[in-house]
Amino acid sequence: MAPDPGGAVPEPKAEKTSTTHATVAVTAIDKSARKLTVKMSNGEKALIQVPADVQEFDKVKVGDKIDVDYMQSVALGILPKGTKPSATEVEAAGPGMAGRQMSVSAEVIKVDAANNQVTFKGPKGTHRIVTVQDPDLQARLPNLKPGQVVVLQYTEAMATAIRLPD
To answer: Do the beta carbons of residue 154 and residue 101 sit within 8 Å?
Structure first.
């Protein structure tokens, strides 16, 4: 049984939402698709879909430093026994916003609660060790058991009200 196509995460779940303000450097522009590739302050690159109602898009040039606000949300839930690992991604855009939601379910292979680490096997059979940083999620680690399948939903929405330097 896969996650509900409507995006609901089965109970129990833990959810964290945060809004971040960042100044980013524009490294590439796809005018026809209205997409910006930006470099974050930590060196990571991100792709921003810019809705048609954001007029400042036409003024942005490669090399500009722009301000963006974006919201991120992570939800974690345990799926019913027998669920197969899977992955989906959905993109959406609306007035002043663009975003995507990724849902990945993975089988728990090993839980190392003392070191806050979980080893997962994903939908392609790849094993990955994840270090859990969030204290609320760390407290739930002793409840995870090998063989359980968990779903992680990551939602990212970029507020595309672009603010250019003066």
So the answer is: yes
Domain extent for 25: 13-163
User: pTM value?
Assistant: 0.55
* Helices assigned H by DSSP within 8-165: 135-140
The model's confidence at residue 147, banded by pLDDT at 50, 70 and 90, is very high
105-114 per-position pLDDT tens digit:
999 999 999 9
What does the DSSP 8-state code read for residue 137?
Answer: H
Q: The domain that contains 58 carries what CATH number?
A: 2.40.50.100
- Coil, helix or strand at residue 64: coil
Residue with the bigger pLDDT between 126 and 70: it is: 126
Kindly provide the residue ranges of all beta strands, DSSP E only, lying in 31-96, ordered along the sequence.
Answer: 35-39, 45-49, 65-79, 86-94
**pLDDT tens track for 50-92:** 777 777 888 999 999 998 776 667 777 888 888 888 888 777 6
Residues shown for the chain: 166
**How many domains does the chain divide into?**
1
Listed in sequence order, the residues at least 6 apart from 114 whose beta carbon sits closer than 8 Å to its beta carbon are none
Contact 19, 57 (CB under 8 A): no
Token pair of 138, please? 């760390």
